[in-house]
Amino acid sequence: MTAKITIRLAFLSFISLLLFSCENTTHTPPLVDPPKQIISTERAKEMYDTYTDRRVSIISKYEDSISADGSVYTPTRYAEYDLETIKNYIAYIEQESKKANVDIKTLRFYLSGYPKSDKFQNGDVVKYPRRNTIFVLPTMEYEGKNVGFSVEETGGKYTAVPINRNNPMQDIKQEKRQADSTGQMNEAGFFIPNNTAAQGGGSSSLILNDSSLSPPPSSNDFGNNN
Where are the annotated segments for Disordered (predicted)? Predict the structure, then answer.
């Protein structure tokens, strides 16, 4: 009887192991529907050529005209990040926004340009002098508007702060006018006139830049070098 029970238990264990192994090997991730913003290759090509025809030559002509050393300007046609950087960036801004108890509404892509200099005003090295670039800024809803934001920390408390907030003196003057006219001090909301760095806190920028720009080197997907 004991031998039969042992054989039966061994058989059941084998079947369980087999089913478990099959379940693991046949598991597939759920299918993801394409975002509605996906466009066709043909449409992308038409948009790329439109920019080539209506913007590239104008930008080059202007930049060449103000070049003191006679150097020829090459307009930027694209900026790229590796996939791991994008994943890490999304994880980081979600982490920081969660600290401040705010929801990220959109990612805003700003067209921008590097100065014709070796360094920025704050001393950071300019990676691509004179070149066009982009930077990415997460946004939140604030007073019924969609605005870019950073996260500030003061005494262990995290707050989402609009990028375009007034400077501290403007905030103080505005609050004083409100108090004088209403007899009450209105809440400043996300506008923080205090110097968080002086209080042992700090500000966390959520802006992504320093991508790889092209050209050069050129690796064009749309059939020309413009």
Answer: 164-226
